[in-house]
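Supplementary Data S3. Sequence and structure tokens for construct A.
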Amino acid sequence: MINQPTLQKLSDFEDKSLLIVDDDNPFRQRLARAMEKKGFTVTQAESVKIGIETVKSQSPAFAVVDLRLNDGNGLEVVKEIQKGNIKSRIIMLTGYGNIPTAVAAIKEGAIDYIAKPADADDVEKALLADPNQKPAPPENPMSADRVKWEHIHRVFELCNRNV
């Protein structure tokens, strides 16, 4: 039996501010609504530029940042958050799960790395997990077909959808 991570309660945190940075508008808005229902005070940004501007005006206690955004890399936002609040709990989201980007995200200050599609419960568990406890392995690792599809999609995006 796998040990479930110990979750802290959101009520234990004085600052409940959450920044969601994702260029997928329907996903970002759906996640924002769900996280507001869970008690977070949510701010949204759809680009690296807006994310960094938001962080410079007020660094959030929590953040969910997509790795690949239309105008750059979400790691730039993570770096800016860390400058303003080293204790921020940051989760990286990506549709392109691979080890090098996960390692880079953790080195920049993210506490977890979640492959899309992720729901609000996954995000909440990652944000509120005890930082001193190692996360459990994923319940549903990506299938070989999913990994293949993600790779094809990534290459498609890298060549600006020009086939």
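Construct B, processed identically:
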Amino acid sequence: MICSVQTATYSLLLTKLLELLFLQDPEFFKYLEECDKELLDFNDDSIDDDQETDEEPRSVPKEEPKQSVKPITMEMVDSWCNGAEDGKIGSIRSVLQAFRRACHYGEDSGDNSAPKFSVMSGSVLDKVMHFVLKNMDNVLRQLLGAPSFGGKKEKISELMLTKTWKRHGSLMRVYLVNALHMITEMTDEQMIAFTIHRVRASAVFLAAFPSLLRKYVKALLYTWARGRGAMPLVSFLFLRDLCIQVGQDCLDMCLKGIYKAYLVNCKLAKSIGGSKLQQIQFLGNCVKELYSVDPQSAYQHAFVFIRQLAVILRGVLTERGPKTPKDKTKKERGKPTNKQLEKSYQKVYDWQYIFCLELWTSVVCGCSSEEDFRPLAYPLTQIIHGVACLVPSARYFPVRIRCVKMLNCIAEATGTFIPVSSLLLDMLEMKELRGRPDGGVGKAVNLINVKQVDKKTVKTRAFQEACIYSVVNELAKHLAQWSYSIAFFEMSFLPLVQLRNFCKSIKADRFRKEMKDLIREVEANVEFISSKRAGVAFSPNDPAVDSFLQVEKEERSSPLSRYVATLHQRAQNRIDAMDETSVIVGAESSTFSRRLSEVQKQQDDNEEKIGFSKNLLAEKKKTKTAKEKTKKRARDHDDVPTEEDVVEDLIISSDEEEDENNDLESDEDGSAPVEDDSDEDFIDPDSAYKKQKKAKLKKRNKYQPSNKASSKTKWKPHPKKKAKH
């Protein structure tokens, strides 16, 4: 009591002194207020705290009252959903708040500002997620006065100037932010695809939030490139809607990002499987579709990327360096070795480079009707021709065949003549295709799945067969493109001469028969053109040449056109016989409208089957299990030396426990070595003599430095040499 009276008197005295100081010297008081504000903010609590610290604590401090948490029931959710459909602001806010808690379900909130609704059951979580993802777009559109479906960036810009947007525009941001959190944090592919499919309806509103738009584009590019099932297609359709609805701001970002994501997927080994080839073909079709949205803007990006390919090829071609006088020695010339040249060639003969060429071939062919993209056909043709002629070796015949297919596609799409026959006829002049193979029959070779073959495969009959059939197919396709030209006789003269010479030199009957069939069809087409142009009165320079055999060309009734159709079917049957997949390189791109309807039907069928609560609970449980097992491993292996830069996969399922039990059983049986300084793995515990030896070894190890590295490996004498004693 006396202490409290003294404290009150002291506090009153200090207060009066401060008031007196303010009246007498206001400048000094202002200085104290700026420099040492704590001195002026004097109160009784500070003195009480100081006195309590000097004395022993007499009572336990009271805990701060926790914020009350209300559980969310199904009745509350039903009332909110009905109110949100009627346009009530309070119900919409409550539903979005519950949606936020559902999106962050199972996460630890470190701050004290947790929402008042934090507890919900699994059925309530599913109800909230399904309602928000299905109906929140329509609800917010009615509230904000936006169009009922779709829209453009200009409409959103006008909407942002209204009072309704300033009041309730943040609700749309809350919805989009939490949906993005679900897309980036979930691991279940079906849930991610369903979320992207539903949020796609609100894509146009991302024009109002530029930072959120960039995050969405980044997340969608990742799910498009790395996802499986319906997720890549749904992500691409979302990106396509963003490019169409948002406009130029999003288009440039998507065109750059989708090309870089495509490059990442093209980093492959020497050979690839059919499923990976299908995936890359689908991704290429997506890039082609996105670049066709706005050809004028896409031309700038395509020009830059094609120029990069040309720069790489030019660097490889100039790797040998400029020519030097012959009087200089080999060292002075600085000529690179064969290994250096082969390493430089691998920059071009790489899957990433080859797939990029095929991508831009499909883009240029798909946009060949556009005037903006037609100028890119010429430099792309020069690059492909340079790649085909870079290394004239039989080991790189698969790359040359791919280049010929690309050139045929460009010629057919643009209607320009490209001298492809010389690339194919040069292959027939090489000894690997003319002579008898020395390596036997060999395994079947699929030139689609490889870019380079080894020296042993080149000498096999299977490789010779695959190359000759490919030459026949591509040469027939090239000649069939011009089988309606009035100059076909002159165009086919040199190929016919070289094909006849090859038939005379080849010794295999089946290859000779294949070549004779091609020669017969070419000669039949020559007679077909000669008979038609015999009754023509105009000259080759006359513009009327364009109308020559126009009806026959639409009906595709020439002998070579019918022959190419049979060859195409035969080649497809041969590929299906070698592989289980049916992938055709250069085939027509998939119809996105048909695939969209299939995916949408699948999403609608699985809509009620998707259980967000089960998946989120499973993810939360897995996360806890992983953390517990990580801690357990850390405790168990504190004394065991570990190697640096070693990362082990964390097994979350029950297989890890079985592996640990198996390891314990093997240790008890003595079959697995024990990582210890002593030689326990040499001791039989059932032998008394060995037990005594074990005790002696332990006693001796106390006086000798331990070598943990040597305990892991046992020294054994060479079987042919006797151990020295």
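The radius of gyration is 39 Å. The chain has 34 helices and two strands.
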